[in-house]
Design brief:
Length: 305
Amino acid sequence: MKAIVVTDEAAGTAGMTLDERPVPVAAGNDVLVEVHASGFTPGELTWPSNFTDRLGRDRTPSIPGHELSGVVTALGYGTRGLSVGQRVFGLADWTRDGTLAEYTAVEARNLAPLPGDVDFTVGASIPISGLTAWQGLFVHGRFEAGQGVLVHGAAGGVGSMVTQLARDAGAYVIGTGRAGDRQAALDFGANEFVDLDNDTLEDVGGVDLVFDVIGGDIQNRSAGLIRAGGTLVTIAGPPETQPAEGLAVDFVVEADRVQLAEIVQRVRDGRLRTNVGNVVDLEDAVATFNGTERPKGKTIIRVRP
Ligand SMILES: NC(=O)c1ccc[n+]([C@@H]2O[C@H](COP(=O)([O-])OP(=O)(O)OC[C@H]3O[C@@H](n4cnc5c(N)ncnc54)[C@H](OP(=O)(O)O)[C@@H]3O)[C@@H](O)[C@H]2O)c1
């Protein structure tokens, strides 16, 4: 099968090549999926699990990519809950060969059925950004209707999902980002927007929840915005500064079939819009990842046109 392969952690996307690899075998509780589309964030290659197994042993040459949509073509021994021919989407395992390939083997529990009226491109854009937004708000962030939520990077992959889910659930949402992201953030449902380059973050006053995707100085300053009992949720690394009377939570997204089903239903109902930017074929993916332009929205690789 055709697959994008990496061997050199230091090289990042520049070390990617399009290669021929054997079709993987579905192990116990796995499904083998014919990949139709895959989502990819260039930052993913900074995650060491792309290059090592769970014990930290080198597993290169490896296939990156964690988000997929496709069709189940085989079941491993003992696999339940999905069947051959079923459309699926979800999050591939972190420490195994991934989704930038014509086939991938994934634990069945990491996938959910993809409804027939949801395009494969849309399906592949949901798993990381959708699950991260859901878990940050409703699991780690302890969100309640009526709260004030500050969403950093509100026009980005994760932030646009957080903004929409929070508004839909009854939040007052303040989005942040660069000056040029204002309109996109408002279109995703932010009530107001803070331009991080030109406005003063501290002018926001207090909020119940900050969803941080940026880290560093922005994350540190955000801790001071948390009201008593509120939460700073971040996906950008452990916070250095704790909220004075609140909680700080750093987390990594997890696969969850029930949450995927909830999220895709909102897409079908028109309550949630995915943030798809570039859509490219597998043959053009390496060049796209290494292009000089930083595309807005999620890059989706169409593995099977
Ligand atoms: N821990 C986890 O489980 C997890 C899960 C998903 C994602 N992540 C990580 O979270 C980060 C965000 O992911 P994403 O898919 O949402 O990325 P994205 O689509 O690039 O969105 C990030 C947004 O934040 C903006 N931004 C970044 N730095 C900024 C700054 N200093 N000032 C103003 N705006 C800034 C970006 O603008 P520009 O594009 O103009 O920079 C972009 O609009 C990535 O680093 C990703 O690897 C972690």
